[in-house]
Predict the structure.
Amino acid sequence: MDNCEALVAIDFGTSNIGFAFSFPPEKDRIYLATSAPGSQQGEEPTPETNNGSTIQDGAVALSLVHVTKLPHNRVPPVLLLNANGTINAFGKLAVDRYAQLVVTKKHQGYRYFDNIKMQLYENDSLTRESEFQDGEGRKISALGLFSKLIQYIGKLALQSMRETISNNSKVNPNSVFWVLTIPAIWSDSARQFMREAAAEAGIPRDRIRLVREPEAAAIFWKKGMQTSGNLNIKKLSVGNKYIIADLGGGLVDICVHEILPDDRFRELHKATGNDLGGNSVDNMFIQFLMKVVSDKVWKIFFRQQYFDFVKLMRSFEEFKRKFDTKTEKIVIELPASLIKLAEQNARSTFSDIVKAVEEHEYVTVVDETKLHLKKEIVESFFKPSVDGIVSMLTDILKECSNTEINNLILAGGYSASPYVTEFIKMEMARMDVTHVREQELAVLKGAVLMGFEPTDIIERRARYTYGFAIARPFEEKIHPRKLKFYRDGKVLCRDIYHKVIDKNQLLKVGDTFKVETRNNDRKFFKFKQREACAQLFRSTKDDPKYCTKEDGCTEVFSSKIEAPERVGPRGFVPIMFLLSVTLTLKFLRLIYSLEENTPQEKKSCNTKCTVTFYKVIVHVPFSSCNLQLHLQPSRVKCWNPNYGWTFDSTNSEHRKLWTCF
């Protein structure tokens, strides 16, 4: 982080988004996003404004300052756009304003987007041309939408920083380093999508760092463990292992770590997770109501009475947060508009409609509009989620049976649910289950802290097998005929998978994996090679044989090295490629290095020699890339009419590799 005057972290959650920032001289002084008088959204300010105070909550002792202009530290990542694509409202205000527009039937000219982050998780084939749909089914560029949201939050953060320091001119946007949180289980394409969106939003690519949400929560927990004076907090030491489970609104994200010396940690199991976060409970509640009133009625209610739908779900959210294993029932007041639609459709009273439901013994209608839901029915809303979480935790322990893991740490807003915590503690009784304090803010604060940490703070496990496509002499009894091809008079098999990284292999920053292809036996004076290619693939299988879909392979990138357009008397070049492709894994970002000449220009060395560089064309499928490309020249080749092709004198042992032709 060279020339870093400030660091901004954006926690881009499925259900909520927020930002915080800090300045390098005081890394532990974290500024949170809370509204102040004059909020752009016009919302009421948060009651607590602990300006300049130090909060010691038993989990982390950090100086927290509330200065920025959001109504809460985290708000829903919802956008309401005007017809011209500009932002009309953001967050809770966007939800409320759109709901009012629906009531007045004036919403047609607006574009409403919610739950957009889940679409990245659900889309396995993201491209730069991918599109999302708004509430009316109209499409918009996914990349453009995300960049618009990041740009909006980024501007709020920069404005807040300027107001925080005494001299506004000291905030230079080019000196700000940005951290974006992402789920650990996201695909390569979703991660690259976030990088591209941030770049589209105007953040320099070299000033962006993506951090995994469970790891950010772990950093926050570790910091609190080290600084807290609370004797009730168990302090783990070097060598201890733990599971960190980030239970969010949309996703459940689980990592397993071992504490290493120097505040570092090692991943013991590849990241695991699913989409059974807190929103799945809401979905189960909705499915139950659809069973009661019918799918048809619910769709009409959602489309025409969106304001009432929002009120209903917010009411359920309050009860969901309070529900625990001791709760006997909850009471939900249904909107009169929903009841009226249901009665008109069924031509019956709402009480009779409910009595016809299979679960009627657990549901009672009181005062015509209130549903009394017994404990059993509410637990059924939680069941798929908590069962899925416990199943994943159990599977992890089985797969790590040779490793003693006794500590489970819960983070994320969904972990604040008493029922979820109690259920997990009961089912995972053999483990010491603890919370990260401030579950909803742990990832955000941890992202700030992690942004100041070196990139080699963690050793990770590869989620895929990585390998290069190579060619070998074709063998009739072994190789498939569809991969057979001819080159320079030889019969070869293409797309043979040359594995360089195993799935689940432990990887450290700086680890290097090489594969070299050398055309030593090719007769270059006879065959004038115009290009050389290299392709990298990943696979979901442990030992793929070929770079094909049948072997679970997806192209990560391909490169083609071409000769200059016109070099030499006949306009072609006999190129001998001593091609060495180096894979360096840094935080699961693959850095691809071609040991060849890369600029696409000619430079005069003297009157007799022109240095000609090769042209490199790199094709990176957006759906697969999670990498950075570094194309570095290693040798210089010269064309001289008197001597033909030679290497630069710095590589004298290779001088006069070619003679005139």
Remarks:
- DSSP finds 13 helices and 36 strands in the chain.
- The first strand starts at residue 6 and ends at 12.
- The chain has a mean pLDDT of 76.
